[in-house]
Amino acid sequence: MKRVVSMLSACMILSSASLANAQEANSSEVMFPNFFSSGIGRSSPIPRQRVNYQSNYAPGSIVVDTRERRLYLITAPGEAMRYGIGVGRDGFRWGGVHRITAKKEWPSWTPPSQMLRRRPDLPRHMKGGPENPLGARAMYLGSTLYRIHGSNEPETIGQAVSSGCFRMVNDDVIDLYNRVSVGATVYVKN
Q: Minimal CB count within 10 Å: which of 52, 65, 106, 135?
């Protein structure tokens, strides 16, 4: 009996250490995300789903709830499609009302000068494609620097790690992109 208890204790200690190492590895991935991994075929840790959503927003509108880290596409009165998103980290969250002014498939990426000052290691320009941090699709918000875009870092969905843009896994951003039009209103609740 002592031998069984000792073996169980050893297993519990080893699994606790493995869990702690896994959690540490996950937190370092979020703190120092890999800008250049494709994320293709990786699903969101927050599955998209059709939900009841009581509001006065018109169908076709998008509501971004930064506290919830969810994006709602209003599909009908009282209904929405809910997606998990990554949002701006402390100091980079914002709110307001904008319209989608452009939509692009596999967009190229030119980091703004503000981002390059913070991260001089970033490339000055990247062509669109699976390695691009904007992912498979991007929807541009008014005259801001911000977008709703795909991500090659699905582990950041549900996290506050961006410089103000709203990230989605590529499968979700493609789904949203196919459902919304240029001119759609986007309400960002902070």
A: 52
The answer to whether 148 touches 26, Cβ cutoff 8 Å, is: no
Give dist(CA 112, CA 73) in Å, integer: 28
Taking CA atoms, 96 is separated from 29, 77, 93, in Å, by 30, 22, 11
In angstroms, the CA 59 to CA 4 distance is 61
Instruction: Give catalytic status of residue 125 as yes or no.
Output: no
Task: Judge whether 88 and 122 are in contact, CB under 8 Å.
Answer: no
For the stretch 13-68, pLDDT in tens is: 333 333 333 333 333 233 333 343 444 455 778 999 999 999 999 999 999 999 99
pTM of the predicted model over 0.85: no
Contacts 24+ apart (CB under 8 A), 129-132: 130/38, 130/39, 130/40, 131/36, 131/37, 131/38, 132/106, 132/107, 132/108
11 a catalytic residue: no
Q: Which of 11, 98, 125, 149 is catalytic?
A: 149
Distance of alpha carbon 64 from alpha carbon 167, whole angstroms: 11
Beta carbons within 8 Å of 105's beta carbon, 6+ residues apart: 128, 136, 137, 177
Active-site choice (11, 98, 125, 165): 165
What CA–CA distance (Å, rounded) separates 10 from 16? 10
